[in-house]
Fold this protein.
Amino acid sequence: MEPGAGEGLTRWVDAARRRWPEVDLAPAALGEHLTALGIAGDPSHPHADDLYLACAAARGDRAAIAAFERELEPVARAAARRVDSSHDFVDEAVQATRERLLVARDAAPPRIAEYGGQGTLAAWVRVAAMRISMNLVRGRRQNVLVDDEAFFDTVTEGTDTERAQMRTRYGQACADALRAAFAALTARERNLLRLHHLHGLTVDQLAPTMKVHRATVARWLARARERLLAATRADLKARLSAADSAVDSILRELHDRIDVTLSRLLAE
């Protein structure tokens, strides 16, 4: 830490304690944590409170873990539900997420220690829970694209057998079309989508980084999503030789779940 950082860390801790008065973390401990992450001890960090909570939880502070469970477990639960809405699966996925993020393994610190404050802690937990949920399902159903199965469960009518047949027929084509469309975006478009959907940065946070007005960033993001969906629609229609109505019914669900799909693509 640079000279004068000690005062900044004290102010950082004092501000975070106003949000979580029950969480007790010494400024020196926070400083060590931030140094390991390569983050300056500036209390004006946009996600200072989240970094404070993550640090305390990584050190095993019971109050911090209780705060994590109270405020962020619902985030993990919602993410798991988008992969499989069954009660048992959601409970299992949430428990697996909790263990993965909060429990130390093989002398390594808990994974929550890796949270670097690039976006909100809630966004970081959402992505982690989504990955863990997908991995749980992949472990049970080999060679199945988990999120695509969720798409077709929702948009396809008929018996379980008919829905399974349609998933088999359309699932891989949909995934391939989306992947090709994503690869065809410009580097700036992919980067914007990554920062917005994976790291949880808002338009207001992106605008200073891109050195443009927030309206310009919003327009770029909207254009990137439009190009992604248009290219996916055209590719999927060509692959399946399907009617417009059939393709549109798939893409309506794809549009609703675009943040989930992008999280998977960007995580790769």
